[in-house]
Inverse folding.
């Protein structure tokens, strides 16, 4: 697959009706009247889903409104160790 669109590749997204938990959109490609998307779920498994152009537009707008930034676990650990030390 290749990303020739404006979908939020690499970001955590929520797709009600496709998955019951948020996942990371890993890749996508045009497929007829929509997109074929590859998601990585929280347990590390990959799942594919076909979404419509309307769903893609909604996904793009919602990702622009709020981007989830994850902190690495070791960053939290190091700051906790400084407080103790």
């Amino acid at each position: 697959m290749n990303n020739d669109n404006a979908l939020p590749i690499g970001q955590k997204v929520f797709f009600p009706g496709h998955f019951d938990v948020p996942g990371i959109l890993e890749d996508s490609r045009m497929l007829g009247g929509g997109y074929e998307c590859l998601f990585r779920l929280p347990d590390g498994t990959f799942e594919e889903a076909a979404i419509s152009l309307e769903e893609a537009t909604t996904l793009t707008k919602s990702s622009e409104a709020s981007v989830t930034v994850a902190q690495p676990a070791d960053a939290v650990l190091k700051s906790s160790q400084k407080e103790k030390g």
